[in-house]
Design a protein that fits this description.
- The longest helix is centred in the middle third of the chain and has 18 residues.
- This protein has a single domain, classed as 3-Layer(aba) Sandwich (Stationary-phase Survival Protein Sure Homolog, Chain: A).
- It has a nine-stranded mixed β-sheet, sandwiched between helices. It has a two-stranded antiparallel sheet with strand order 9-10.
- Helices cover 29% and strands 27% of the residues.
- The chain has 245 residues and is an alpha/beta fold.
- It starts with a strand and ends with a helix.
- It is globular.
Amino acid sequence: MNILLCNDDGYNAEGLKLLRKKLQKYGRVIVVAPLKHMSAKSASLSFSYPYKVKKIKDDYYALDGTPCDCCDYGLRELSTKIDLVVAGCNCGTNCSYDVMFSGTIGICSEAKRSSYPCIAFSCESDGDGLKVVDKYFDDVMKFIISNKLLSNEYYVNVNFPAYNVPYKGIRLSKLYERNDRDVFSFNKGHGLDYYDESKNNDPETDLWQLKNGYISVVPLTKTVFSSHLYNKIKKVVEKNSKPKD
């Protein structure tokens, strides 16, 4: 199996190096990663300038572009047929609506657009987050493979709990809708923070599971369109459009 590995933290990130090492038991790993840190780029692509690609070593490239540029380059410009796309491992979880602006998730969205199966991996950025990934990575892969979660219909978003939370296992999850306050509160040299004021007691959600020691596995699709919502609104529009007697 040929595996394309991309990230948004840059080609020299520790999370990328760890995943490259862990994935080598599953097949040939080809890395295409940004030349510099590219977090929160979502599914953005570069149109205004040509790519500059630096070969670090065999099967390892750094590209002066976005995470999705890296994914496209690996899928379309290299002469290797890719069987699986992997994104990460991101330093910092990608839960709840973080998936909207995450470069890690953007990679999966781009791979899914071209019908490639894809997995995103993220962990807590607590200094020891990658230790959890190192310890339980094979368990997650076994969970994904045994449950046949590699698919062209959706991609898989995996988040690992913090190192200091007692580990309890792996669970299929759904995205939790946070109730944030001051999400665009900028700090000196740190960017933005959010303050979650919600009281989440739903054990099926990603945030609850992470806080309670579970690895969260969420299936995601590339679209923000909801057929359920469309049909609900359509009934109202059709009702209001009927001519009145």
